[in-house]
Amino acid sequence: MQSPLQSVAKPALQQAIYVYEAPLRLWHWVNALAIVVLAVSGYFIGSPPPTLSGEASSHFLMGYIRFTHFAAGYILIVGFALRIYWAFAGNSHARQMFIPPVTSRAWWRDVLHEIRWYFFIAREPKKYEGHNPLATLTMHVAFLWGIIFMMVSGFALYGEGEGMGSWQYRLFSSWVIPLFGNSQNVHTWHHIGMWAIVCFVLVHVYAAVREDVMSRQSIVSTMISGWRQFRDDRPADD
Ligand code: HEM
Ligand code: HEM
Question: Which of 10, 78, 86, 233 is the most buried (most CB within 10 A)?
Answer without folding.
Answer: 86
